[in-house]
């Protein structure tokens, strides 16, 4: 599933690329910034995800013969198609590390390449990073409330088609433990697990028989679904019988699963029945339209649930349809570039840049990132990007550069990490962030500022653009 064709793009990228090609501009240098404007879920942070996946994909991105035939039919010209036959992305990429906590309006990633190459990769870059960052952020919110409980992704069946594949990857980056998605488990090396469906129990005349056969077929990690007929009168008592039979064979029932009704009530009552039967090791799993709010509430009600299976609300990023990440030109043909907008929030930042995270003497993030020109090593004062009279002195802080070179000449420079390693890194970065930025209601707003030099460069370009209009 990682075999993407370079036609995984919007047609306008190729239309622009053909013009660059024909007008002799294809090799002009360009820098594009990837950033988003709004944190999903009205939260205080986002978890950057999809990077290592993206780098692997773009290092192998090619147009094959059938792509070229199709593009010919679409009216693209022969000499341009000849160029596309040998297309490779040979650019450089600077980026935040996958799993880092990231904030709006400042570059998360920067592409520095020939303009034609940078343009052709835009759509796939936005597609993979926007979606995985959205889902990793959702997963991270669920992890924040779930504490040490086991979190399983059950979402493939409800996902936006193949989005479920990448959602399973992003869920792990954000802190989930495993997935029911077999192909994602295989390709991304994610622990795969699962329970059983109602249909299996319905297909038997007798629930107990169904449990027995299932436990025989899958003694390791066996989880019995107890709510098909009557949770407390039938499901749990039958699960207890099978657990005892398993004990006599030297096996252990892993858990029961609740999938309807008042999950707190049923978890408490089931726990009592299991404990009374001497089965305190049998865990309780719950599913049914869970999200961070329901899980938080269940844990506040002290529901003894050990495993949460989360589907729809995780993999669809509910209630936010998309991360609004954009890819904006900052420099090309040796000149800084700017996009003017009616809304000051949408005016872009010119030039190659670096982002610095401000930290105190204990390595704790103080809640501010400053954007400077790439050659600036330390920023003494940062200015509010849209309210020029607001500024903050940064001299006393440690300043960590966030954008690191991750690709050179189209080849990945960083060592590939396992998703578990990325997820651990993400947790460690989150732990540097003060709690005020992690609360769900009205989180503290993380400060983003620009250096004086960057501010002045932007002003200069705005003035000259206005001048041209006169
Ligand atoms: N104790 C609880 N506290 C908070 N939310 C809960 C609790 N128990 C269940 N929920 C959530 O409430 C919602 C209940 O959904 P719904 O009304 O469809 O019930 P249901 O049990 O699924 O009904 P059905 O019989 O149709 O399966 C789900 O999102 C579930 O996760
Ligand atoms: O509610 P979600 O968060 O999306 O979690 C996934 C749901 O998918 C399954 O139900 P489904 O009715 O599809 O199959 P089932 O017959 O196995 O219950 C499972 O039982 C969960 O309820
Ligand atoms: O394994 C499960 O219990 C499962 C898998 C997918 C969706 N719902 C439940």
TrEMBL record:
**Gene Ontology biological process terms from the UniProt entry:** NAD+ biosynthetic process via the salvage pathway
Q: Can you give the residue ranges of the Nicotinate/nicotinamide phosphoribosyltransferase domain? A: 151-316
**Source superkingdom:** Bacteria
As recorded in UniProt, its EC number(s) are 6.3.4.21
Q: Which GO terms describe its cellular component?
A: cytosol
The UniProt keywords, alphabetically, are: Glycosyltransferase, Ligase, Phosphoprotein, Pyridine nucleotide biosynthesis, Transferase
Residue ranges of every copy of the Nicotinate phosphoribosyltransferase N-terminal domain listed in the record: 9-130
Ribosomal protein recorded as keyword: no
Q: What class of enzyme is it?
A: ligase
Question: Nicotinate phosphoribosyltransferase C-terminal domain: which residues?
Answer: 352-456
Q: In which pathway does it act?
A: Cofactor biosynthesis; NAD(+) biosynthesis; nicotinate D-ribonucleotide from nicotinate: step 1/1
> One GO molecular function term?
nicotinamide phosphoribosyltransferase activity
PTM summary: Transiently phosphorylated on a His residue during the reaction cycle. Phosphorylation strongly increases the affinity for substrates and increases the rate of nicotinate D-ribonucleotide production. Dephosphorylation regenerates the low-affinity form of the enzyme, leading to product release.
Quote the InterPro entries the UniProt record gives: Aldolase_TIM, N/Namide_PRibTrfase, NAPRTase_C, NAPRTase_N, Nic_PRibTrfase-Fam, Nic_PRibTrfase_pncB, Nicotinate_pribotase-like_C
Q: Which reaction does it catalyse?
A: 5-phospho-alpha-D-ribose 1-diphosphate + nicotinate + ATP + H2O = nicotinate beta-D-ribonucleotide + ADP + phosphate + diphosphate
Q: Which family does it belong to?
A: Belongs to the NAPRTase family.
Protein task:
Catalyzes the first step in the biosynthesis of NAD from nicotinic acid, the ATP-dependent synthesis of beta-nicotinate D-ribonucleotide from nicotinate and 5-phospho-D-ribose 1-phosphate.
Q: What name goes with this protein?
A: Nicotinate phosphoribosyltransferase
Q: What is the lineage of its organism?
A: Bacteria, Pseudomonadati, Bacteroidota, Flavobacteriia, Flavobacteriales
